[in-house]
Amino acid sequence: MKTTQILLEELRLKLANQQGKTIEKITNYAIAKHLHQTETTVARWAHNKGSFSDETCELFARELNYDVGFVLASIRAEREKNETIKRAWERLATLSMGVAAALLVAVALPFIPADEMSLAQFGLEPLSGLAFAGFSNLSHDIHYAK
């Protein structure tokens, strides 16, 4: 789970890396300008005096390449006073990241090249993309029905 302050510091680090500066050189003003927010708003986030709106959660998710559901659930958990509901939001945030990671693996894995040597270590043979998707027994004969 990520808090407002953690997400803010991650953005500060990203901007520092992009601009070739140290993290200390990325001020609240620079973040405010980047996000089209006021410096006062960013200072409130930095000093734990406020948290993100839903729209700001979406903006931070996009900026930091996180799933929007993860950021929304994390911030809702941070805001929540009721411990039972807070734990529910935290579980949703964790599940959101797990689902996003599983989808990434499921979509990307068939396209990651592997040499035959590394596959052989696990007793595997290379498969084509169609074979991976369960279409290895496709016949080349085409039959038409009327």
Care to describe what's here?
The protein has 146 residues and is mainly α. It has 8 helices and no strands. The chain has helices at residues 4-19, 28-35, 39-46, 54-64, 68-79, 83-108, 116-120, 129-132. Helix 2 (28-35) packs across helix 3 (39-46) and helix 4 packs across helix 5 (68-79). The chain starts with a helix and ends in a 14-residue tail after the last helix.
Please summarize the sheet with the most strands. none
The radius of gyration over CA amounts to: 23 Å
Q: What is the share of helical residues? A: 55-70%
User: What is the N-to-C succession of helices and strands?
Assistant: HHHHHHHH
Q: List low-pLDDT spans.
A: none
Described by the principal axes of the CA atoms, the overall outline is flat
Find the count of extended strands (DSSP E, 2+ residues): 0
In terms of DSSP E residues, the strand content is under 5%
Distance between the termini: 57 Å
Number of helices: 8
Structural class computed from helices and strand pairing: mainly alpha
